[in-house]
Specification:
Blueprint: H1 2-23, E1 37-42, H2 62-71, E2 77-81, E3 88-91, E4 94-95, E5 101-104, E6 109-112, E7 128-130, E8 140-146, E9 149-151, E10 155-157, H3 171-181, E11 184-186, E12 191-197, E13 199-202, E14 205-207, E15 214-217, E16 220-225, E17 228-230, E18 241-244, E19 247-252, E20 255-257, E21 278-281, E22 284-286
Parallel strand pairs: 1-2, 2-5, 3-6, 4-8, 5-9, 6-10, 8-12, 9-13, 10-14, 12-15, 13-16, 14-17, 15-18, 16-19, 17-20, 19-21, 20-22
Antiparallel strand pairs: 7-11
Length: 287
């Protein structure tokens, strides 16, 4: 009996070891590096104690950042950099391009607009609670791209706790209302990546997303290295990093604090979370 138990235990351990090998990222993942800049943009807005003055709320940097991303050569980076006391880039939705990295430099913040209209997928579809959600564009999207990334020691702030322009509610208030009314909130997520092979997040700090912080779908090769996600535990549906229907994912040396799942591996109609799937190395995850 003892021998049978020992053989069963040995077989179980071998199976778990083999399973762990099959689940690992097949890439040789090392610490990323920040590419050379194709262009450096300087900030024109200063925050006062972390708050953007009302006079600047319509001074969006969306067009000049997007123009830089569109014109940058593959393998290069668009750098956002503070200049003196001007340290904020205020933006609506941005679209990543293949081979191009967006770098938010130290002491610099890319901050989401509070205007729900800039995120509308249809007229009036964002910033509401209704029977159906998902009426908003994300702050950053990447679709059918490869070898792109978001890097730098600065931050990206979704401003989930700030009141929407023209309304007396925050994005997080809408999420709470949806919970108590059993409906759906339409709020922007910080980042949605689909078919974004070889995408890298490096050292960036993400904070205060109105919804999910990073949603990755149908992607082969995703790395998050040294990323910080900092959002209050009371922020509903504010998942940290969600790889779905993807493979070869490494999340390493990250610190994640959100109001919902910190890392959630998902599968669904788009397909399974296929092995080899993911590897987590020294990640601090708190709620």
């Amino acid at each position: 009996m003892h021998r049978r138990s020992l053989r069963a235990l040995t077989a179980a351990l071998f199976f778990l070891f083999a399973l762990s090998l099959s689940a690992q990222d097949t890439r040789k993942v090392t610490e990323p590096h920040i590419p050379a800049a194709c262009i450096t943009l300087t900030a024109t807005i200063s925050s006062e104690h972390g708050v953007i003055p009302d006079r600047d709320e319509h001074s969006l940097d969306t067009a000049r950042i997007q123009s830089a991303l569109d014109g940058c050569a593959p393998g290069k980076a668009v750098v956002l950099r503070a200049k003196g006391n001007k340290n904020v880039f205020l933006s609506g939705p941005l679209v990543m391009r293949s081979g191009v990295t967006l770098v938010v430099d130290a002491k610099t913040a890319l901050v989401a607009s509070r205007d729900p209209r800039v995120y509308d997928l249809a007229p009036g579809s964002c910033g509401v609670v209704a029977e159906r959600g998902h009426g908003c564009k994300p702050l950053i999207s990447g679709n059918d791209i490869k070898d792109s990334g978001i890097m730098g020691e600065g931050s990206i702030d979704g401003r989930g706790g700030a009141k929407l322009l023209g309304q007396d509610v925050t994005w997080w208030d809408l999420a709470h209302e949806a919970k108590v009314t059993d409906k759906q909130q339409s709020v922007p997520w910080i980042m949605i990546l689909r078919h974004a092979n070889g995408f890298t997040l490096y050292k960036i700090t993400l904070r205060n997303s109105p919804g999910f912080h990073v949603s990755v779908g149908q992607t082969d090769g995703f790395t998050a290295w040294g990323v910080k996600i900092m959002t209050p535990k009371t922020a509903r549906n504010s998942d940290g990093i969600d790889p779905g229907s993807s493979r070869n994912v490494t999340i390493a040396y990250c610190s994640i604090h959100t109001g919902d799942d910190n890392v959630a591996v998902k599968s669904g109609k788009a397909g399974p979370a296929a092995a080899p799937m993911a590897e987590w190395i020294t990640c601090w995850s708190t709620t």
